[in-house]
Amino acid sequence: MKEVLEVLVPGAVAAMIAFFGLRIVAKQIDEKGLSDQTLQALGLVLFLPSLVVISGLGMFESEGLAALLGAVAGYLFGKTSKEASTPPTS
After folding, report:
1. 52: burial class by Cβ within 10 Å (0-12, 13-18, 19+)?
2. Torsional class of 60: left (φ above 0), alpha (ψ -120 to 50), beta (otherwise)
3. Helical H runs in 1-90?
């Protein structure tokens, strides 16, 4: 029974993240159209549930999970806009 719960709980959490995340992304696409931010959110909504399932199944060591989560954080917070990267003109 414990083995079933170890697979079922991460799967349920991943399904909830994917379901509600896709609803939010679909609403954004309906309101604002397809933009860079919605594509970024869509990728995140599809990547995080798979990461939850993989971690729940114990397929990665803690260092591997930390590296993947660091990559996600870098992707989210490392994005710069064209206005911010363009130097001011005098």
Report:
1. buried
2. beta
3. 2-32, 36-56, 62-77, 82-85
pLDDT tens-digit readout, 31-84 = 888 888 888 888 888 888 888 777 777 777 888 888 888 888 887 777 655 555
| Nearest CA-CA partner of 53 in 28, 16, 90, 2 | 16
> What is the b/e burial string over 2-37, where b = at least 16 CB atoms within 10 angstroms of the residue's CB?
eeeeeeeebeeebeebbeebeeebeebeeeeeeeee
Domain boundaries, the chain: 18-57
From residue 46, how far is each of 43, 81, 85 by CA, in Å?
Answer: 5, 23, 28
* Residues whose CB is less than 8 angstroms from the CB of residue 46 and which lie 6 or more positions away in sequence, other chains included: 18
